[in-house]
């Protein structure tokens, strides 16, 4: 007989890459807790994913409440085996027009909340003697992309934080890795490319595989880090981009 199902937390798991990851987890028999803000999207995700999916409506900007959120999860589910830090916000604006407040808001959500949630979940994982944390980065951490200065800073921080977390937590049994998605075909990107068709052409022209990725491509990479296949992998940043970052 197999052991009790693993328990995973996926932030921003009600849509896009997070939903694809939650779908991969639940279809693999992993009890998956989706944290998000949009109650309607959470409800739809739960209906789609079934009994192994559990939803929590919570704003991760509310840093002070994260410890009690994690304690509630521990009390209800008994453990946390996997944490996927997927939730994040973007701001598209000329650098010269970005206010300090706007910049800080992006870092608060994309970096500070990731740190606090990871710290609290790590306490549970240390007691268990094992766990896997997967952070989600972006091509913005690899390139100088115009008009996304705050988002770029936040994702560069995520990659640095992944390595620092791995060094401290791996001796305690917790592996920490990162997935850096390339340009993925989602509802959001499809809308953006409709407004800027030349941008899509530019992306495809420098992508050796000559196509956009699918949300499932990212879900598979995240799953790799969280199952037995990656037991000796920590502090890694896996780029899933069809070769875009090495294309010329």
From TrEMBL:
InterPro entries to which the protein is assigned, alphabetical: NAD(P)-bd_dom_sf, Sc_DH/Rdtase_CS, SDR_fam
Range of residues in the leader sequence: none
Keyword terms of this UniProt record: Oxidoreductase
Superkingdom, natural source: Bacteria
GO molecular function: oxidoreductase activity, acting on the CH-OH group of donors, NAD or NADP as acceptor
Similarity annotation: Belongs to the short-chain dehydrogenases/reductases (SDR) family.
Name of the protein described by the UniProt record: SDR family oxidoreductase
Organism expressing this protein natively: Litoribacter ruber
């Amino acid at each position: 007989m197999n052991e009790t199902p693993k328990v995973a937390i996926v932030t921003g798991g009600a849509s896009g890459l997070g939903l694809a990851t939650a779908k991969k987890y639940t279809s693999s028999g992993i009890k998956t807790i989706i944290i998000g803000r949009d109650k309607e999207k959470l409800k739809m995700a739960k209906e789609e994913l079934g009994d192994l999916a559990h939803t929590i409506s919570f704003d991760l900007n509310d840093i002070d409440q994260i410890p009690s959120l994690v304690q509630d999860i521990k009390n209800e589910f008994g453990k946390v085996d996997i944490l996927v830090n997927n939730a994040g916000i973007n701001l598209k604006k000329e650098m010269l027009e970005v206010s300090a407040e706007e910049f800080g808001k992006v870092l608060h959500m994309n970096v500070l909340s990731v740190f606090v949630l990871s710290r609290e979940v790590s306490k549970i994982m240390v007691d268990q003697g094992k766990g896997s944390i997967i952070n989600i980065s972006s091509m913005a951490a690899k390139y100088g992309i115009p008009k996304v200065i705050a988002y770029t800073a936040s994702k560069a921080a995520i990659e640095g934080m992944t390595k620092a977390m791995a060094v401290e937590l791996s001796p305690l049994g917790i592996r920490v890795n990162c997935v850096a998605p390339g340009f993925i075909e989602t509802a959001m990107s499809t809308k953006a490319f409709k407004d800027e068709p030349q941008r899509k052409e530019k992306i495809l022209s420098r992508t050796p595989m000559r196509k956009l990725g699918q949300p499932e491509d990212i879900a598979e990479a995240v799953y790799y880090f969280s199952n037995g296949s990656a037991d000796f992998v920590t502090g890694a940043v896996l780029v899933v981009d069809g070769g875009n970052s090495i294309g010329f």
